[in-house]
């Protein structure tokens, strides 16, 4: 490909005509997202049966699927569509592992386990004396999720990319914005979250 910088839609158009260079350029652009999300899923799955390499392999499948099935006539960006495909693929890995590891418990449900036992176990897990502290923790987590849900989607997307381990420059490259915009958006979200948490 020439030195011209193509946007995602132009690259996808070229990929439709089997342009391998366009595919490589687009793949290299989105590779940091693959690494960050796979790393996050691997860390969250507590080193289960799914290996990091399996997750990366699944991310490549998700990228190829996103390139094949993306419809530019819909009101969604390729970035959003790709992240959705990647999240679906990684979640399917997580579901398979969960079902495999918990097959006995999924098939045999205890009838004598009630909600009070659940909260008592959660308190023991967090080494908390009373269940009120658990509710405080869960309500704090819910407050942050609610803020991100009701916040400007652009700011929330930038913040979530940063929380998944991407650097400011990588986020700017992926979203095709300046580093300064990334910095401003993250500072705004942090300032708002600080108000919520105080």
Could you explain how this protein is built, in words?
- It is a single chain.
- This protein is mainly alpha-helical.
- It folds into 2 domains: 1-100, Rna Polymerase Sigma Factor, Chain: A; 151-198, Arc Repressor Mutant, subunit A (Orthogonal Bundle).
- The chain has 10 helices and no strands.
- The protein has helices at 8-16, 20-44, 52-69, 78-101, 103-107, 115-125, 131-150, 153-163, 168-175, 179-197.
- Helix 2 (20-44) crosses helix 4 (78-101) and helix 8 crosses helix 10 (179-197).
- The longest helix is centred in the first third of the chain and has 25 residues, at 20-44.
- The chain is globular and about 55 Å long.
- Residues 104-116 have low confidence and may be disordered.
Keywords:
198 residues, mainly alpha, Rna Polymerase Sigma Factor, Chain: A, Arc Repressor Mutant, subunit A, 2 domains, 10 helices
CATH superfamily of the largest domain: RNA polymerase sigma factor, region 2, helix turn helix motif
Oligomer state equals single chain
CATH architecture of the largest domain: Orthogonal Bundle
Return the CATH class of the largest domain.
Mainly Alpha
Count of alpha/pi helices: 10
Shape: globular
Q: Tally of extended strands?
A: 0
Order of helices and strands: HHHHHHHHHH
Count of the separate structural domains: 2
Strand content: under 5%
* C-alpha termini separation: 52 Å
Helix content percent band: over 70%
Instruction: Specify Rg, calculated over alpha carbons.
Output: 21 Å
Topology, element by element:
Elements: H1 8-16, H2 20-44, H3 52-69, H4 78-101, H5 103-107, H6 115-125, H7 131-150, H8 153-163, H9 168-175, H10 179-197
Helix pairs in contact: 1-2, 2-3, 2-4, 3-4, 8-10, 9-10
């Amino acid at each position: 490909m020439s030195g011209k910088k193509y946007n995602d839609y132009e690259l996808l158009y070229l990929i439709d005509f089997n342009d391998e260079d366009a595919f490589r350029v687009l793949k290299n652009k989105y590779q940091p997202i693959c690494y960050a999300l796979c790393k996050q899923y691997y860390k969250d799955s507590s080193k289960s049966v799914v290996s990091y390499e399996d997750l990366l392999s699944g991310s490549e499948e998700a990228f190829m699927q996103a390139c094949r099935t993306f419809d530019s006539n819909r009101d969604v960006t390729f970035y959003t569509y790709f992240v959705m495909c990647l999240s679906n693929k990684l979640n399917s890995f997580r579901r398979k592992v969960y079902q495999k590891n918990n097959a006995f418990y999924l098939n045999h449900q205890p009838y004598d386990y009630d909600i009070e036992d659940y909260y008592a176990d959660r308190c023991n897990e967090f080494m908390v004396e009373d269940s009120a502290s658990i509710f405080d923790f869960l309500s704090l987590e819910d407050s942050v999720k609610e803020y991100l849900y009701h916040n400007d989607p652009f700011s929330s997307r930038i913040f979530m990319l940063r929380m998944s381990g991407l650097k400011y420059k990588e986020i700017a490259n992926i979203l095709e914005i300046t580093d300064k915009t990334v910095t401003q958006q993250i500072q705004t979200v942090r300032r708002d979250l600080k108000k919520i948490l105080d």
